[in-house]
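Just wondering, does anyone understand these tokens?
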Amino acid sequence: MNKAQFIAALAPHFNGSKREATHAVDIVFDTITRNMSAGNDVMINDFGKFKKVDRKARMGRNPFTGETIKIKASKKARFLPAKALKEIVAGDRKLGPAPKPEVKAAPKPVAKKAAKKAPAKKKAAKKAPAKKKAAKKAPAKRKPAKKAAKKR
């Protein structure tokens, strides 16, 4: 599932508004990113933990040439799934029913007072159309029957 599919799945929970769903997803991702860049861990119960990890400098090997190289120290993002998420993915625990989007009744439009109009004039009743004379169809013309060839 990519971001667009994720937003489409969330849209029904925002009254079908993809714009609001996109805004909510962007806020969540931005908040997680900003907290991780500041060095704070982001823990979401029953889902997992996002954290920033410092990796030390180390020696590695170039797989093409076989020579040893020095790998610089770096900072990486890491996600540690919670126990509940691991159990659901492994099939040891059943996932509950998905939350259904709230169905909000559409606000009823306020009835406006209709402007008073002059009473409509009644149209004169139309006369029933005269019966059309049925056109007689000419009988289909028959082609003369072919005579059998005589033997000589």
Summary: The beta strands are 42-44, 48-55, 58-61, 68-71, 74-81. The first helix runs from residue 3 to 10. Residues 13 and 101 are 5 Å apart (CA to CA). The mean pLDDT is 81.
